[in-house]
Fold:
Amino acid sequence: MSEPCFIVRRLGNPDADAFRLIRLESLQQNPNDFGSTFEKESNEPSASFVERFDRSTVFGCFVRERLMGIVGFFPLEGPKRSHIGVLWGMYVRPEARGTGLAAALVESLIEAGRERVEQIQLTVVASNARARRFYQRMNFSEYGLEKKALKYNGAYFDEVLMVRFLN
Ligand SMILES: CC(C)(COP(=O)(O)OP(=O)(O)OC[C@H]1O[C@@H](n2cnc3c(N)ncnc32)[C@H](O)[C@@H]1OP(=O)(O)O)[C@@H](O)C(=O)NCCC(=O)NCCS
Structure:
């Protein structure tokens, strides 16, 4: 059997510069598909990207040592919410889409999430048909719609709420 041509692993401090680059690319290339903005994050110090590795588990997928995709995970806090994890920041560089790399990232996140939470939630902008289809294929179910969840440059965006139960 041939070896997979990409490697998924948890990102750490030495990956901060590469993470910052791909995160800013995601916000610049897909400004309507994320809750944050390029304008905000490009003005943040490099240290703020390192801090995310403390607050979240961030996975990266590498092809020949180049970071081609990212996804983040954190568990909610509080005595009644800590069984829920949140998936955020999913992005795959255009040239790596449709290759299975995105699925490998989410599978790594799910495996790690199983040890800490019972379900994983995410939100996706309703008009992002490709991402919705992708998450459905990864066994996430749509369970709600937040109308006008985001407002950017005067335009409103609805968000679909999705969940995958792990047990
Ligand atoms: C969302 C993303 C991570 C998915 O990765 P990907 O490699 O593109 O995903 P895949 O190719 O494995 O799966 C996409 C699915 O959508 C389908 N698809 C492609 N274009 C589509 C479209 N315009 N409408 C509906 N479905 C579409 C594909 O056929 C595939 O479904 P299938 O497996 O049933 O054939 C990637 O597209 C991406 O980074 N997009 C930009 C950032 C983004 O939207 N992030 C999500 C924020 S919530």
Notes: DSSP finds five helices and seven strands in the chain. The chain has one domain: 6-165. The chain has a mean pLDDT of 96.
